[in-house]
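pls ignore typos typing on phone
glutathione + seq
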Amino acid sequence: MIKLYGLRMSNYYSLTKALLIEKELDFEEVKAPPSQKEDYLERSPMGKMPSIEVDGRFLSESLAIFAYLERLQPAPAMLPADPFEAGKALELACHIKLDVELVARRCLPEVLMGQPVSDETKDQVRGDLGKGVKAVSRLFVGAPYAAGSDFTIADLYVYYCFGLASMLAEKVVGLDLLAEQPGVAELMQRLAERPSIARVQAEAGG
Ligand SMILES: N[C@@H](CCC(=O)N[C@@H](CS)C(=O)NCC(=O)O)C(=O)O
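k done
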């Protein structure tokens, strides 16, 4: 059985858990807060969550875990069958992850630990987020799903990464990313009803 390490409060842990549920794979959750201890780094070389364990071997990074799970359990597919469209769905997921979520994440210390972020950082975040959100809107299809007609891994990145970024952007730098992207806001509302995501949310407090 696959072991999923991390904490339920983490957006990337939640994304990976939703993916395991979508794939109907058996898994066991193991509480493991981020750490720089040697045994943790063996599972996740940057000391981050999530990571998974399969038959005594470890894998970290949500996209790498996705690549593994997609091959392990091809159905239901989380990428379009067309190879180029599959690439486009991953391109969208990458921009959400690297150019929106990772940028907004610079504001996390202020929200999570009350550590104020400098005005200089806030200005940089506003500028970088502007570019990142424009990149996402060029690739976002939203008809009806993020990358086109089918639910894909890109939808999970929309929900868990664009979602966190929009909360951070609003709280810390006063930007309403969802107001600028009504299609994303509408999709996020629909995704919240999806059984995998609703289950992750229902279990988040535990
Ligand atoms: N690129 C990683 C990001 C994972 C990540 O940022 N995890 C956060 C929690 S949501 C974490 O472990 N932070 C603790 C740290 O950076 O030390 C992925 O896609 O899995």
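Residues 83-194 form a domain with the Glutathione S-transferase Yfyf (Class Pi); Chain A, domain 2 fold (CATH 1.20.1050.10). Strands lie at 2-6, 27-31, 51-54, 57-60. more later
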